[in-house]
Specification:
- It is a single chain.
- The chain has 252 residues and is α+β, with helices and mostly antiparallel strands.
- 23% of the residues lie in helices and 38% in strands.
- It has 5 helices and 12 strands.
- It has helices at 4-18, 30-37, 41-53, 83-96, 168-174; strands at 57-60, 64-67, 76-80, 101-111, 115-119, 122-126, 130-139, 142-152, 180-192, 207-218, 223-232, 236-240.
- The longest helix is centred in the first third of the chain and has 15 residues, at 4-18.
């Protein structure tokens, strides 16, 4: 018979292979394995070491053990409507998948007049002043995302002094004590022409992209952030998750 830690590790690896656990997901901790499988500390530790030694996961000290991205093309799966995914931010998500993030800032400026956007059929507005951050997001030196964020400086004063590599979502919650009430997102597809001034991906031919428009709302209905980003169509897949804890109510 197989040792128990092999049996458990095989079952977790199978969840990764089947897509039940995707790159960046956290697998059960030692304590969770002990509780769920009624095993000893030693067996739980061996289970995690076995999965890691086979190259399926990576431990990040103080955070947990995460599923690595093993696809040859580094295709990323991102989940819309996932509070955990949004809270992690781009850099932390890539690190959890074993990829190396890099950011290049194209523009970081303050707009005194504010900004507006149409998202999920709703016109949303952030009154000025607004911080605009336009940056290119890389994974292992490959450009994956062209991201522009607009952040309320009224709700988040002096956030322009923080590094752009942080998870802004965490900053809203932890540094500004804002309660996130809702996140609305619209995902569409488009083609960027090779010679377009909007095409920062450096392709010599037209490229398919995903266009994500989103807005983050505080519990008083005020808009904290608006995002408008381009994702490489050949590098991303999107999943959808419903989270009732946002307390979203119908407009009807």
């Amino acid at each position: 018979m197989k040792p128990k830690f092999i049996t458990i590790s095989d079952s977790i690896i199978e969840k990764i292979k089947s897509g039940e656990l995707i790159p960046g997901d956290k697998i059960p901790s030692e304590n969770e394995l002990i509780k769920n499988y009624k095993i000893s500390n030693t067996t739980a530790r061996k289970t995690l070491l076995e999965i890691e030694s086979k190259g399926w996961v990576r431990r990040i000290k103080g955070k947990g053990t995460f599923v690595l991205n093993r696809t040859a093309t580094h295709q990323l799966v991102r989940t819309l409507g996932s509070i955990d995914s949004t809270r992690k931010g781009f850099n932390e998500s890539l690190k959890a998948e074993g990829l190396t993030p890099k950011n290049i800032i194209l523009e970081k400026t303050i707009l005194n007049e504010g900004v507006s956007a149409a998202i999920v059929g709703r016109h949303v507005i952030i009154e000025g002043p607004v911080l605009k951050v336009h940056q290119l997001r890389y994974a292992d030196d490959e450009l994956m995302k062209d991201e522009t964020r607009y952040i309320s400086l009224t709700l988040c004063p002096k956030i322009d002094a923080l590094s752009t590599e942080i998870s802004y979502f965490k900053a809203y919650e932890q540094q500004y004590n804002l309660k996130i009430n809702d996140i609305r997102q619209t995902l569409s597809a488009d083609i960027l022409e090779a010679n377009s001034n909007k095409n920062h991906f450096g392709t010599t031919s037209n490229i398919a992209i995903f266009v994500l428009d989103s807005a983050v709302f505080a519990d008083d209905g005020k808009v904290i952030e608006i995002e408008h980003s381009y994702y490489r169509g050949d590098k991303y897949k999107f999943a959808i998750s419903a989270h009732p804890e946002y307390g979203h109510k119908s407009d009807d």
